[in-house]
Structures are given as C-alpha cells and as structure tokens.
Prior knowledge:
Metallo-beta-lactamase, Chain A, 19 strands, 32% strand, globular, binds zinc ion, hydrolase, zinc
Amino acid sequence: MSSPIAVGDARIHRIEEWSGLFMTPQTLFAGFDAADYARVKRQIPPDYLDLERDALRACLQSFVIELGGRRILIDTGAGNDKERPGIPLFGHLNTPFLQTLASAGFTRESIDVVICTHLHVDHVGWNTMLQDGAWVPTFPNAQYVFTDPDAQYWDPANRHRFPDKIGEGVNTGFFDDSVKPILERGMAQVVSGTTTLFEGLRMDPAPGHTPGSQTITIESRGQRAIFVGDIVHHPLQVFCPDWNSIFCEDPGQARVTRQNVLARVAHEEAIMIPAHFAGRHVARVSRTTDGYAPQGL
Ligand SMILES: [Zn+2]
C-alpha cells in the first residue's frame, strides 16, 4: 500500500480495482495525429505507454479523501458481477476491491460521501453490489453525489430526449444497476452548477466528456488537488489537448474543457488527479511556449 497524498491537512488514498494495457493511442483517441505522437511519445515513461506494443497503460481506481473528519470516495470503478454486454472487459468482474479498500483502513460502512466525477460504466460500478439477487448500495451510510445533467442524460427513461449518444453501447446497463438503486432510496444529492459540498471541497461543471462531467477541487492550507475524471484520460492529452477519447459525448466542448482544466491546474499549481492514469497516478502540469507538459510522471 503506497502512502497517501497530502494536500494540506487532507489525505488522499488510491484504491486500485484494475490495471493493465488498454487500447492503442490510435484507437482510443479521436483526433490522433501521427506527427504529434512521434514528437511527444518518448517523453512519456513506459509505465504509462508501452511503446513496444504501442499500447496505453491505464488503471481503474478510486480515491478516498480524508478531509475535515469525513471520508469521501471519488469514483467507484466497474464493480463486481455487472452485466456489461457493450464492454465485456468490465462485465462479471470478481475483484477484491472492497478488501483493498478495507486494507487501506476504510470499511464500506465508514464512507460518508461518494462522488462520481461523471456517470460512465467505469465510474459508478461500486455504487452498488449484488445481494440476494438485488443491487443494493455498497456504502450504506454514504450520501452519494451525482450531477443533474448526467443523471438526466443517462436515464433510459429520457432516451427520446437524448437519442444519439456516442457511448450508448458501452454504457448499456449501468444506470439501472448502479445509479437508479441509489436514486430510488433517496441516497443521492443531485447537483447542478458549481457546488461547495463543504469547506475544502468544491465541484465545478466541466462538460464535454459527458454533459455532467465535473472537476472536484480539494483545498487545504493553500494546497490544492483537482480530480479531473476523464477530461484527461492519459498524459498524451496534456501534450495534445485537442485529442479527445472516442468516449467524449460532445467533442467540441470536450476540447474546450480540457484546455480550461489544464490552464487551471497549471495556474493554481495543483496536483492533477485523473481517473485512469497508470504510473504514478497523479501529475502536475506546467505551461510551455506552445501548450502544456505533464510534470512528475
Ligand atoms: Zn473512465
């Protein structure tokens, strides 16, 4: 177990669900440019990018923040036992995620708040677990937090309003087994716009990857960490902010948001915590003459 990240008085623990090779740059990135790739790829360490196989390394991981006496879980991975016809890699998993969480010092019952950076199949899975054939909240004492734009967008009951979703196929099923059971029990706070959940934790809209994607900023004693979800999937996108993943629902907006978020992380000298970085899992971002570069990979 690696030691937690300190942000002022806050402590951030990483909880890994899965890690491995995940797609090639050419297949994950819409807007992939071979010349740009050749220019930057050797600046990315091999524990993020396997140049021999030309494959991206990625993690499914959650983070527990200890802040002001609360325990806040950010993103909940793919989960166990889920039916995932659109993405078999995440279907019928049987990982020891809850044991990993407990080994880090956090029982299911001890989690106070669960926040999803966005609603996608690989960020909501452990919201629920299978018990006697039913999906029940994994964290029985938690307040869950979702954004309203995503809760609207992914609800199959609203399909007539949002008929042409890019991620419809890979995301089949997650709303009904991992979001709806939370909403039905009244355990979710559904937020819109900038929201200060409590002192030291703020959520800001960062649409594009999904309509309700958000950043989560932790601040303590003048230090900051910014959880950026899938706005930055891989370090290559810090060098090449115009590269979207093929899972970005609104490509134009996703590029604008990525530029804005990288500018913020650099300006505020924050620790950037993306959802899927392998390697050292977090990075800082510096400005260069013509863009941005990741630091501390
Ligand atoms: Zn993701």
